[in-house]
Amino acid sequence: MNKEWFNEQLADIEVPKEEVFAAIHRGIVLGKEEIKKTKKKFKPKKVAYIATMAASLLFASGFVFQPITAVLASVPIIGSIYENFHSDIGKKLESNGLVGKLKEKATDNGIDVTVTSAYYDGNNIGITFKADGKGLSKNLSGSTGPEADYSLKLFDGVEQKQWEGSREPLMKKGDGYIGAMTLEYPLKTLPSKMNVPLTFTYMGGKKGNWSFHVPVQQILAEEITSNAKSSSQDGDYFFKMQSVIKGKATTIINYQTKVIDEGDSLTMRVYDDHGKKLNLQQVDEQRATFKSEIDKDTNYLMIYPEFSKFEDDTIQSISVLPQKIVSKRFESIVNIEKVQTKNQLLILDYTLKNINTSDVRKDILQNFVDQIKLVKTKDTNGLTGQDLYENLKADSILYAKKASVVDEKELSYQSTFHIEHIQGFDYKNYSIIVPFGILSLNSDSIKLDPIKVNLKQQQ
After folding, report:
1. Do 23 and 52 reside in the same domain of the chain?
2. How many domains does the chain contain in total?
3. Residue 252: is its pLDDT beyond 70?
4. What does the alpha-carbon distance between residue 89 and residue 196 come to, in Å, rounded to a whole number?
5. Taking CA atoms, which of 228, 264, 374, 413 is between 20 and 30 Å from 385?
């Protein structure tokens, strides 16, 4: 908008002060009532939204002055779709006219669901929708509900893994409800456009089937390649850049890594040359997404990668006692000293070794011992990690009650298992599952040297 033209237009308007102040007063009263209604349900809005709401309330209060409305009619309304939601990406894109408006409708069980808008920036796909119909519940659980008052799936002929993302709870709007979601495209190669196979299966208290193929086209972004690399001194870990994708409201960093164990996790901090930190949204395999756009005058990024170690559960038979179970990565030891059965209970006594209690928080230690389990040895079939739990029968694992501290100084504990439902129980037929991976929460991360990525190299 031309700022001088706007100021000239305002200067020519005779403002009825008494009417304006009366309208502002009514707007404030309405605003206070609106805050009371929304206070429990929503997080504080940003200043831009508060200003938008104040303007809306001013006009809702009854103030109508034609010259001013004629001028403001030329001003784009910021956040008209996303003003009710917490999507910073959606608000940013809409303010730049980059959110496509849609009218895709599906009907089932007397409820109409209409997809009202969509955007596709980086790997983020945002969708808003509305629901109308007599079958909608009048009392929704809102953000405290288990499914945000609606559920959905992505279906494209065959079942596929659910995409990551976030959802806003349904919000009352007129006689119906509105909602919004942000989905993260899971594959590394991002198509320039696609139809998102979205199906709602529950909406506002009703089960049903509302299916859509939501058309989205990726907002044009700049991609900058880089071969910058950083490695640990022993060469066991490295982080190698591939590219930076500068979206309009998001940033994607594509990279390659090397780790010792596939369970090891990467975290990163990213700053621009002005010291501004990018807001990390998600770190996936070989891709990190940030809810921050890169300023036009940014010359380079500084990336600080670090890795956290992980260890799968250790499984070891307890047929022979005493038993020493040693962590493969954290040097910790569980010494099983005694196993006894009493009153249909199995009581396991053990001591932790090679753990510096000044470095490990008590809650982490307690969580560690609480997660010690027993499993029928014959049912493990040599499996470990997630494969073990996915293939075990439900009755193969024995879970203990909260572990008791026998001697805090010596780190001696006792775990108790109920065995009354197991006929002919013999502990020699069982193995212990020790979750050493929990101790990774307190282990030092492997910090690599920072990487500098030049953003002006192709200009």
Report:
1. yes
2. 4
3. yes
4. 19
5. 413
